[in-house]
Specification:
Blueprint lengths: L2 H74 L5 H18 L10
Length: 109
């Protein structure tokens, strides 16, 4: 091999090494960008789920409070047999929720 050929191959080798290095740097940059994007997506998803869980808990608590207030209203307006109704309401709730799936208290007739 002549010195001109060796010089040509050395230059070509350097050019290819630079090109490969450039591609590797671009790949590393792309991977870093993807990782940052995924972290942002995970953070947004986590925040969304946390917000939805908090909303669900709030609505559940609100529903329980409203149901309790309504039960108290019914007990207060039921007249002189309030204590008897109050005592039987718990068993009626358990019975009605286990048989019909409806947890509303029912007075015994």
């Amino acid at each position: 091999m002549s010195s001109e050929e060796v010089a040509f191959y050395e230059k070509e080798k350097e050019r290819l090494v630079k090109e490969i290095s450039k591609v590797v740097e671009e790949i590393a940059l792309t991977i870093n960008n993807i990782n940052r994007s995924q972290e942002g997506t995970v953070t947004l998803a986590r925040d969304k789920v946390t917000g939805e869980m908090n909303m669900w808990k709030h609505l559940r608590d609100l529903g329980e409070a409203k149901a309790k207030d309504r039960a108290d209203e019914l007990l207060a307006s039921s007249g002189p047999h309030t204590e008897a109704f109050s005592a039987s309401a718990g068993s009626n709730r358990a019975l009605s929720s286990s048989t019909s799936g409806d947890a509303t208290p029912r007075a015994q007739s």
